[in-house]
Amino acid sequence: xxxxxxxxxxxxxxxxxxxxxxxxxxxxxxxxxxxxxxxxxxxxxxxxxxxxxxxxxxxxxxxxxxxxxxxxxxxxxxxxxxxxxxxxxxxxxxxxxxxxxxxxxxxxxxxxxxxxxxxxxxxxxxxxxxxxxxxxxxxxxxxxxxxxxxxxxxxxxxxxxxxxxxxxxxxxxxxxxxxxxxxxxxxxxxxxxxxxxxxxxxxxxxxxxxxxxxxxxxxxxxxxxxxxxxxxxxxxxxxxxxxxxxxxxxxxxxxxxxxxxxxxx
Length: 265
What we know:
By secondary structure, the chain is α+β, with helices and mostly antiparallel strands. The chain has helices spanning 3-8, 11-17, 22-34, 36-54, 64-71, 90-151, and strands spanning 156-163, 171-177, 182-186, 197-206, 209-216, 227-231, 238-245, 257-262. A hairpin with a 2-residue loop joins strand 4 and strand 5 (209-216).
């Protein structure tokens, strides 16, 4: 079993999301027992979902009241001063004390309100981020399911593209639907192209050799699953992938031929 292809197929995400049939669930469960890499990937997917859930439960930090006291310079106990034994104007003292208490109270309320508004903004932003992450995860699962349905179509012909002289370890697959005249290229087995270059996919007639470009593997580094869809109205006898300058070429550079595969007749 090629566990790397298994992982990149999207089945494990659907398994964790509970979107597979009972038979498929049992199969993946058994495979995960046999191949530690699959089990590790499943645990990583489950951990990601748990992390998203925890992001929605921010809590107030401990010691918030003490922090407020510190901002008000009330963290230390005030020393009691002994009053001289003489008559005092208690009405004046009471007025000043009331003014100080009211001022301190208003400042404390202002500080508390500012902190609360800041916390509300943080929670609101976290909620927006979480909703965006959940939406992206949901879209990813839907796209994976659609892709699986596409490559399982009864009209699909699978063409394995093996590595060539310049990169013997490279590989790719072409999922060719002759009825709908479409082809999906799974380029997971290709190395990232150097800056200023792009992979180009060719439909080939073999005798005589006639190449026809069907498209570029654009944004190869940014594409997560490395699967690209193209229209292919050609009567293809083989498919090849070459490395070309950015923007592509009119004809393939055979010295930069990374993978090649012949379609079954």
